[in-house]
Amino acid sequence: MLFSLFVAAGLSLMPAADTLQAVTIVADRGVVVSRTDTVRIQSLSDVGGTLLYIPGLYVGDYGSLSGLKTASLRGLGSAHTAIYVDGVRVGNVQSGQADLGFLDMQDLSQVVVDYAQNSLTFQTARPEFKNGPVSGQVKVAGGSFGTWQPYGKVAVRLGEGWSLSSHVGGIITNGKFPLEDGTVRENNDLKQLQAGADLFGTFAGGDLHAKFYYNGADRGTPGSLDWPSTDRQKDNSFHAQALFRKAFSPGYTLNVSAKAAHDRLFYQSEWGDTDYKQTEFQLNTAHKFRIKSWWEVSLAADVAYDKLNSTLYDQQRWGTVVAAATAFRFSRFKANLAVEYAGTFDKAMSNWHSLSPSADLRFTLVNGLDLVAFGRRAFRTPTFNELYYPGYGNTELKPEDAWLTDLGIDFNRQLGGWRIEARVDGYYNYLTNKIVSAPSEDPYVWLPYNIGKVQAIGADVLTNVAYTSSNGLLLGITVRYGYQKALDKTPDSYTYDQPVPYVAAHTLVVNPLASWKGWMASLTWNLRAGRMDANGEMPDWNTLDAQLGKDFTLGKCVLGLRVTGRNLANYRFETITGYPMPGRSIMGGINFKF
Q1: What distance in Å separates the CA atoms of residue 550 and residue 558, rounded to the nearest whole number?
Q2: What DSSP string runs through 396-432?
Q3: Checking DSSP bridges between strand 82-85 and strand 88-89, what pairing results, if any?
Q4: How far apart are CA 593 and CA 79, in angstroms?
Q5: How far apart are CA 257 and CA 208, in angstroms?
Q6: Within the chain, what is the greatest distance between any pair of CA atoms?
Q7: What integer best gives the mean pLDDT of the chain?
């Protein structure tokens, strides 16, 4: 449980590129200038396709649209990588892994990757009113594997600075795609309904964003190729949240967020059905004080309550975070120092306490060239399943303890119509008390223990070059390369000094694009190399995606046509062993904005 993120991030000139400049974030540590990237969500993207643009980020995809999707940043594991939607954290105390498939990608505009806080924040764009007090869009996409994605949204301007929008959309797919042996992937269908409403308000010295969101899905869980499954899963979740910011004086700003959520997961299996019901409440506050023009101090306090009722066991958890931070801003040097206390208290069980210092530094060498560094300690409390699952849980577990460090350099320059951005980052993360499953006294019974250690050393290189002509022609290319060596350092482990499963040693993403007079075209080449699993080296893979679109102006309205081709070379690969990803697919969409 962390304090909500309020992200103010500008986009680069390129529609699908990411911002390489530092971003100011108000979080559980107060005001932090973190190490971030902002990646645009393209019109026909799914969550896996969007996140695969990011080096250093491992996306676990258990097969096509219906499969579980998780994210792990820089070798720390998916439970260590926090997920936020519009500034409020997505919780899952049962497994610790937020299923990214619940995200409504049709209504989200961008994702902010925060390397210092090891988090991903998905954001909704404010509605635009170009033709009066009402705006909206209707779109439908369809294509391979019997996939259809309808979506509709209407926004109303309520007054100066206030607007209300509501949307509804969904996904219907049979999920069937051919495998290399000529058979077809079965039990991979998905029916999903997503609906929500957003209230945006801007007033003197502050703003408000209230969000209501529903996600319902009925999907197959096909299992691995070695152990195919006829199981099914039904999801129903409702989230209500609000974020409020107000500057009451030049020297004091208040940030408050609150959330209430209820999630139900019903899993149907030939071995017996399981019903999980989770209830979550959050209240988060941060107070920022400007002492001098160059000095700020902030205090934050959060409280969260989680309750799980399931067929197998019941549990409750209270969590609190208290943090103090200070920030110094000079013409060439910026520093952010913070310390955070976190306490976790489970019903009738042990409690956990942690203290996490952090530091974030930025020094401007010359105009457009910055040196940056951060260091942070981070803890991950054991999940309910790891602690209490019958026959598996271990109530003696300790929180995972990680140190995150980064040293990098930024370059940004505008030369006429040219925009050049570049970044190089080196990082070192060390995780101790990693929770791993190992044999107990009975070798046939495996239990979770704090015996794992992981060392991740790597580097990320990003470049972005864009040219905009006087007649509106935009040409650009973004290249991202990541090297990561994540090793198992667990003593006496049979995998000691071997790479962590599935983490790629080399990641390369090349994304050229062009747009002119309503036309847009882009290519994305994605390479992953140097991966391992429990059986040894895994095959390298690469994919080529393409998107072509045209916007037509119809009076005050816009009609957009898009065609997206994924994995055009029909490359066969797996991100998780035994869970094949689809081959070539084509999606076409029509989008009408008014």
Answers
A1: 10
A2: T---EEEEEEEEEEEEEEEETTEEEEEEEEEEEEEEE
A3: antiparallel
A4: 38
A5: 10
A6: 74
A7: 87
Q: Which residues contact 180 (CB under 8 A, 6 or more apart)?
A: 572, 580
For 350-390, write each residue's pLDDT tens digit: 799 999 999 999 999 999 999 999 999 999 999 999 999 99
The string of pLDDT tens digits covering residues 488-546 is 898 887 778 888 888 899 999 999 999 999 999 999 999 999 998 878 899 999 999 99
- Supply angle C-alpha 1, 81, 232, rounded to 5: 95
* pLDDT, position 32: 55
Burial class (CB in 10 A: 0-12, 13-18, 19+), 62: buried
- The residue with tokens 């970044």 is 423
> Which pTM was predicted?
0.88
Closest C-alpha among 524, 592, 528, 527 to residue 564: 524
Distance CA 552, CA 520 (A): 12
What amino acid is encoded at 231 in this protein?
D
As a whole number of Å, the end-to-end CA separation of the chain is 40
Residue 37 token pair: 């990237």
**Pairing verdict, β 206-220 and 190-203:** antiparallel
Q: Which tens digit of pLDDT belongs to each residue from 151-169? A: 999 999 999 999 999 999 9
Task: Show the domains of the chain with their CATH numbers.
Answer: 6-593 (2.40.170.20)
DSSP structure class, residue 322: E
Secondary element (H or E) of residue 6: strand 6-8
Q: What percent of the chain has pLDDT over 70?
A: 92
